[in-house]
Amino acid sequence: MAEILPKWQDKPQVVNKASTPTLRQVFKSPWKLMVFGLGCLVSLHLFSRMLSGSIIRRSTEMSAQSMPSDSLHDIYNSTLGFQKVFAIGFAERTDKRDAKTLASSFTDIDIEWLPAVSFEQVSPKAAPPTWDFNRQAKGALGCWRAHMNALEHIVRHRIQTALIMEDDADWDVSLKDQLLEFATGTRALQHLPPNSPSSSAYGSEWDFLWLGHCRVGSTDDDQEFWVIDDDSTSPPVKHRWAGWTNRHFPDEVRRDGTRVILNAAGGGMCLYSYAVTYETARKILASVSLTSIDSPVDASLSEMCRGKLGNPLRCYAPYPPLLASHRAAGPQFRDSDLNEKGDKWHKAYTWDIVYSTVLNIPRLVKGMATVNAQWPDHSRPEILWNSSLRASSKGYLKTIAVSNSTTSPNEP
């Protein structure tokens, strides 16, 4: 039986063509039609750009969120993974400033200068009440105040991490590679995964990094060291200046071509270079500036690392050091602004640094591709150097029974 359709469907539908004008009818002129088409294309292009930009921005934001803010490779920036790098020096020692400016230019380090302080600039009223002016060298008081001023600057400006160096500090041309290894070691000693989130590339459980010293050491306890074998930047034992504070010398400390990273709970000496956090700067100011002391500033900081003065510090250090004091060629009295010395002439040298940046400035300024070790008898007296290359860590954790190590009255 045929389906009966409603009357309105039974008749064919007539479309009124006049009611649906074409584009040609709307745009009577071909030029108007062309302009309309171009407008559509431009709108489509802009929309796609906006959509693409949104996707890229979102992808970038997600990538930034997934990457740790304290990547170890922040060490390769111009402040070595710290917020600031400072150098303390007298304005009149333009010779030292020129040397450091050149050295930092070749190794891409951005250094801000802070003024040194002489003995005469410290008011007796501002000196620690128990300071023995007869026993302590004049330079010790000015040195104390200069470092306190640097720490006060950090606190006042709320700088979260900073590296402080003295004006005669020198470093290896591969300092950034060395610091990458050092940071890997400090993280391992803090038992932090290599890329765990923290406020610093050097980990989150440190107060004081004693990078440039003339003596450092550990306690006698069984403890972990970060050991780097086959390190050509570690000075041979016979050429080392920096001492070891502990009377027990682990084999790794006395071995050519080896460097160790340690918990410096045995203290240290000399402040060629060190790093602090904002909280550390506050602790030191409270313990070494506001508390009455009668000892050089490095001795006070050593006591804080040992937990015997004020607020104990969690200290880490490399041995041998990564930064050390440079002595330009000339009479001895030019070496230090704090201690009087004679006029005996000496050649240029830098303690404990194999491929000294300052000593290699004559080669670097010529654009030479190699740098020299300062000791001709070094196993690698000349090496290729390319500042754009980056190293990878090769150290490892090792537990050492320090108290069972060799006992020797001699320096390593």
UniProtKB/TrEMBL annotation:
GO terms for molecular function: transferase activity. Belongs to the glycosyltransferase 25 family. InterPro entries: Collagen_mod_GT25, Glyco_trans_25. The keyword Glycosyltransferase applies. Keywords: Glycosyltransferase, Transferase. It comes from the Eukaryota. It comes from Exophiala mesophila. This is LPS glycosyltransferase.
